[in-house]
């Protein structure tokens, strides 16, 4: 039970939030409430994505200071021997660069288990932007509906539109 | 130079949009020429891309030089290349047409209209080019956002129709995103080809997460493409949109979404996974049968020309989804061929609806008396479009139906075959009704409570629309015949794609 509920709390929350959002988007008759539902719905998905990047006992995906330092040293010694083909390695070599990999072997290994997966977070940055723009467009549309019909209630809007059609 | 053409397809409309933004507010007259040049450049680049694909096989274009699976990849095979050409041609024709509609319908919003127009074309082309599942989501949302705005520019009721589209579109896109999330959990990749390799390589075929991902993605796409029970947003949105927007959105958006569905089925999950290990082919093709019949019957009940066309799109989506889910090569050929032909048929008919609405003030079918006498060229274009919708050879509609029906027979799916035939019959009724009214009914019939903004029809005086509207209509009508005549070449390309994607033909 605990395994099912607590260990997966994020996922349960995301499902519940998603259902709330979906209900508001479809069931509510007020346009602004629908949009609130839409925001909740999108936030639920963001929560889901952010949750899948998490690992136990992991830290933010920035290399630990000692490791960066060690690689720096390694790069410098290597640079000394290979006589600096480029100065770009001054800018702190990326761990995947061959300069770091083929060091003299004493460099600390980078364990991916120690770092959270940053990719879902990056994806969600984009998704947040998309969500904000959707909300912006939707609010602009609601504004023009309100100017046209003088109401935000779906039933009233529909009735007024029918009347004006004839 | 030639290897850069895939990105040029996208860059022309994108930078065109930026240029219109910068220069348009300075000199409003510049907006239209810039739009046209951008669309023309994109058209040229996509022709070249198609030629390169035919000559040298698939093109792989790594953006920024990052290889698979790290970067974003444009993977262009025959399917992309065909759809690219369809999008850029149809956007170019609708672009020429939009000069007049933008002046007449949204005179104070010309600049935003062209910016949104170009951005939408960019997004649609990007959807077709990209080989990255998340990138696809972003581009789908860009195309939808521009679509919402383009639709909401329209008549009084357009805003409310657009609002419903926003709600449904967001649900659809979010479902797609969730599906991508589940795929990412299991495969750790977002690149379409890489995902398929992981699914089949790491033996995830039985994994429930992958199945959940598949269901979410499919439901999301079905909402976006207005597949039957999820279609409610479409007819209003398309019929209240401004003509200029509708001529871009109606032919392309649903077709591109069908393209995404086929791409996801074939490239991401693999045909053997979708048709082999999942039990849904049968269910989905029956849903498609219902979509076809229901869409056609609802179209029959409409009095408004553009609403009728909207419901016909719902039926046509049923054709394409059904064809794709028949689980054989012939059905898929029919489905992909129908993407091409339906895009041009819908374009032709919406261009026609725009001309009669803006130029003759006709919105309802019963008000169309005498149009053959006053607008012979327009009605000629319409007749070709109508014949294609019905499926009369040698127009393209006949050949796509031919392959779809053959696919249905091959799969032993008689329901689908009957649905296609019934729908063709209903199309015949719908369009011959219009032709009858427009050709035989006398012009001086009593006007129906002033719905017709009379243009003083004195006898049978010809009053045609201007060239900028007639020419796209005629080119669209001509292309319907050309696609029909060159169907063999297109089908060979599609077949090449399907065979290389692991969808062999019937044992002969």
Write the layout of secondary structure elements.
The complex is a heterodimer of chains A (166) and B (508).
Chain A: H1 2-5, H2 9-27, H3 31-52, H4 65-82, H5 98-101, H6 119-149, H7 154-165
Helix pairs in contact in A: 2-3, 3-6
Chain B: H1 5-24, H2 31-56, E1 59-62, E2 73-76, H3 78-105, H4 110-129, H5 133-152, H6 158-187, H7 192-201, H8 208-225, H9 234-240, H10 243-269, H11 271-277, H12 281-300, H13 305-324, H14 329-360, H15 371-374, H16 376-390, H17 396-410, H18 414-440, H19 467-485, H20 487-500
Antiparallel strand pairs in B: 1-2
Helix pairs in contact in B: 1-2, 1-4, 2-3, 2-4, 3-4, 3-10, 3-14, 3-19, 4-5, 4-10, 5-6, 5-10, 6-8, 6-9, 7-10, 8-10, 9-13, 10-11, 10-13, 10-14, 12-13, 12-18, 13-14, 13-18, 14-16, 14-17, 14-19, 14-20, 16-18, 16-19, 17-18, 17-19
Structure description:
The complex is a heterodimer of chains A (166) and B (508). By secondary structure, chain A is mostly helical. In chain A, 66% of the residues lie in helices and 0% in strands. Chain B is an all-alpha fold. Chain B has 20 helices and two strands. Chain B has helices at residues 5-24, 31-56, 78-105, 110-129, 133-152, 158-187, 192-201, 208-225, 234-240, 243-269, 271-277, 281-300, 305-324, 329-360, 371-374, 376-390, 396-410, 414-440, 467-485, 487-500, and strands at 59-62, 73-76. Chain B has a two-stranded antiparallel ribbon with strand order 1-2. The two termini of chain B are 43 Å apart. In chain B, 62% of the residues are buried. The chains are: A mainly alpha (166), B mainly alpha (508). Chain A binds chain B through residues 22, 25-26, 31, 34, 38, 41-42, 45, 48-49, 52, 119-120, 123, 126-127, 130, 133-134, 137-138, 140-142, 144-145, 148-149, 157-158, 161, 164-165, and chain B through 134, 137-138, 141, 145, 148-149, 152, 156-157, 159-160, 162-163, 166-167, 170-171, 173-174, 177-178, 181, 184-185.
Summarize the structure.
The complex is a heterodimer of chains A (166) and B (508). Chain A has helices at 2-5, 9-27, 31-52, 65-82, 98-101, 119-149, 154-165. By secondary structure, chain A is mostly helical.
């Amino acid at each position: 039970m605990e395994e099912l509920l607590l260990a997966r709390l994020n996922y349960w929350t995301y499902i519940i939030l998603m259902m709330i959002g979906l209900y508001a988007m479809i069931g509510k008759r007020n346009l602004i409430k629908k949009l609130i539902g839409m925001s909740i719905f999108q936030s639920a998905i963001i929560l889901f994505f952010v949750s899948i990047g998490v690992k136990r006992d992991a830290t933010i995906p920035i290399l630990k200071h000692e490791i960066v330092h060690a690689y720096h040293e390694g790069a410098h010694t290597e640079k000394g021997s290979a006589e600096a083909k480029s100065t770009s390695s001054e800018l702190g070599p990326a761990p995947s660069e061959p300069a770091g990999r083929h060091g003299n072997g004493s460099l600390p290994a980078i364990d991916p288990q120690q770092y959270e997966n940053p990719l879902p977070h990056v994806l969600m940055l984009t998704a947040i932007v998309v969500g904000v723009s959707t909300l912006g467009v939707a609010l602009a549309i609601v504004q023009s509906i309100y100017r046209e019909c003088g109401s935000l209630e779906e039933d009233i809007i529909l009735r007024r539109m029918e009347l004006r059609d004839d | 130079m030639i290897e850069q053409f895939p990105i040029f397809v996208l860059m022309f409309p994108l930078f065109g949009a930026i240029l219109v933004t910068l220069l348009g507010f300075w000199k409003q007259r510049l907006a239209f020429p810039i739009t046209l040049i951008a669309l023309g450049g994109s058209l040229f680049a996509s022709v070249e891309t198609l030629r390169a694909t035919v000559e040298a096989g698939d093109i792989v274009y790594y953006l920024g030089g990052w290889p698979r699976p790290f970067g974003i990849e444009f993977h262009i095979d025959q399917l992309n290349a065909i759809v690219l050409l369809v999008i850029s041609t149809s956007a170019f024709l609708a672009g020429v047409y939009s000069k007049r509609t933008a002046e007449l319908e949204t005179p104070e919003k010309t600049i935003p209209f062209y910016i949104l127009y170009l951005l939408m074309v960019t997004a649609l082309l990007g959807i077709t080019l990209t080989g990255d599942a998340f990138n696809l989501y972003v581009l789908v949302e860009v195309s939808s956002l521009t679509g919402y705005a383009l639709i909401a520019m329209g008549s009084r009721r357009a805003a409310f129709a657009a609002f419903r589209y926003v709600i449904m579109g967001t649900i659809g896109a979010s479902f797609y995103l969730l599906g991508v999330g589940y795929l990412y959990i299991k495969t750790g990749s977002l690149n379409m080809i890489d995902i398929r390799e992981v699914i089949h390589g790491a033996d995830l075929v039985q994994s429930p997460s992958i199945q959940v991902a598949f269901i979410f993605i499919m439901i999301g796409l079905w909402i976006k493409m207005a597949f039957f029970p999820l279609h409610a947003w479409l007819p209003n949105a398309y019929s209240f949109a401004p003509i200029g927007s509708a001529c871009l959105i109606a032919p392309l958006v649903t077709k591109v979404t069908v393209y995404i569905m086929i791409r996801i089925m074939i490239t991401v999950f693999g045909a053997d996974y979708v048709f082999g290990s999942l039990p849904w082919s049968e269910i989905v093709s029956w849903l498609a049968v219902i979509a076809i019949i229901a869409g056609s019957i609802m179209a029959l009940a409409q009095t408004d020309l553009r609403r009728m066309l909207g419901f016909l799109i719902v039926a046509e989506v049923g054709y394409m989804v059904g064809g794709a889910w028949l689980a054989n090569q012939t059905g898929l050929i029919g489905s992909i061929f129908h993407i091409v032909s339906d895009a041009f048929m819908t374009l032709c008919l919406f261009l026609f609806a725009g001309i009669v609405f803006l130029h003759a003030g006709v919105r309802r079918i019963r008000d169309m008396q005498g149009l053959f006498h006053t607008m012979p060229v327009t009605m000629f274009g319409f007749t070709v479009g109508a014949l294609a919708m019905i499926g009369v050879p040698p127009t393209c509609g006949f050949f796509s139906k031919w392959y779809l029906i053959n696919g249905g027979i091959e799969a032993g799916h008689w329901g689908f075959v009957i649905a296609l035939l019934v729908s063709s019959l209903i199309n015949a009724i719908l369009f011959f009704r219009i032709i009858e009214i427009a050709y035989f009914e006398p012009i001086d019939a009593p006007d129906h409570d002033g719905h017709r903004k009379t243009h003083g029809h004195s006898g049978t005086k010809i009053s045609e629309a201007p060239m900028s509207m007639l020419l796209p209509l005629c080119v669209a009508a001509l292309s319907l015949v050309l696609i029909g005549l060159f169907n063999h070449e297109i089908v060979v390309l599609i077949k090449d794609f399907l065979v290389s994607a692991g969808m062999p033909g019937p044992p002969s």
